[in-house]
Amino acid sequence: MHRADLFLQSNQFTGAIPTTIGELGNLYNLNISDNKIAGTVPTQIGMMSKLRDASMFQNRIGGRIPGEIGYLTGR
Question: What sign results for the dihedral spanned by CA atoms 23, 63, 61, 55?
């Protein structure tokens, strides 16, 4: 398996974070900061077991941080 990084910052993206984000099991770094993303962080983020860094600041994301984020080990 290969390590993957996804950098989508500063692109003026709108909408919500899709629940299918949990399918990105090899993702190590996710940066979706400085967009216009709204809604909540989906619980499926807990399925991204290799995620080490997630930057989501400067968006319109609200609500509670899902408890499933505690499943992330970054290994």
Answer: negative
